[in-house]
Specification:
By secondary structure, this protein is α/β, with parallel strands linked by helices. Helices cover about 55% and strands about 10% of the residues. About 30% of the residues are buried.
């Protein structure tokens, strides 16, 4: 009986908490906001929560206190956000959240994890003029993105329950793909009807 109760508890938590992971610029926040709207959930950006807690932009904290201190604060935020309290949440994580083993465990065991998979070349096209991401303020940001991909891609794959290639689809198409995967797995809230997954047929 206890085993059945525990499995039911974990499954219901996975239904309520969905996290998006992937490299910086992969669309986690943009897709997360739209996904939350579609299924009637609250959207939470873990980086925004982190900045609220530290009282400054992550870049400033990173420069003043170093990466280790930034990751410590991030780990506390991930632990908090992935605790089930009955609320339906879509959580967009920072690109480096998977570097800490504790974060990987919390994300995988407490939530349904979707990896938005993007190539370094695709990300460079999106981020080449971005000045807000500390790790990309280097001489060769494209080489840095390749390095980040090689380092983090295996960790994203390890943590994810589902993966979606971002490529060039629109945000709406990505959201549809994610919803189809969630519906097949039985992880969509009952209030969300399958008919929202496909556009109406002409005629």
């Amino acid at each position: 009986y206890q085993s059945v109760w525990y499995e039911s508890f974990v499954y219901s938590a996975l239904m309520r908490l969905i996290t998006l992971i992937g490299l910086p610029g992969g669309g986690k926040s943009t897709v997360g906001r739209q996904l939350a709207k579609r299924i009637g959930a609250r959207f939470v950006d873990s980086d925004a929560v982190l900045e609220e807690r530290i009282g400054m932009p992550i870049r400033s904290f990173f420069e003043q206190h170093g990466e280790a201190a930034s990751r410590d604060r991030e780990e506390a935020v991930i632990d908090e956000l992935t605790r089930s309290d009955g609320e339906q949440r879509i959580i967009a994580t920072g690109g480096g959240a998977v570097l800490r083993p504790a974060n990987r465990a919390h994300l995988h065991d407490r939530t349904t994890v979707i990896y938005l998979r993007s190539s370094p070349e695709e990300l460079y096209r999106r981020l080449r003029h971005d000045t807000q991401r500390p790790l990309l303020q280097v001489v060769d940001p494209q080489a840095k993105l390749r390095e980040l991909y090689e380092q983090r891609h295996p960790l994203y794959e390890e943590v994810a329950h589902y993966s979606v290639d971002t490529g060039r689809p629109s945000v709406a198409s990505l959201v549809n793909m994610i919803m189809m995967q969630l519906e097949v797995a039985g992880l969509l809230p009952t209030a969300v009807q399958p008919s929202v997954l496909a556009p109406p047929r002409p005629g």
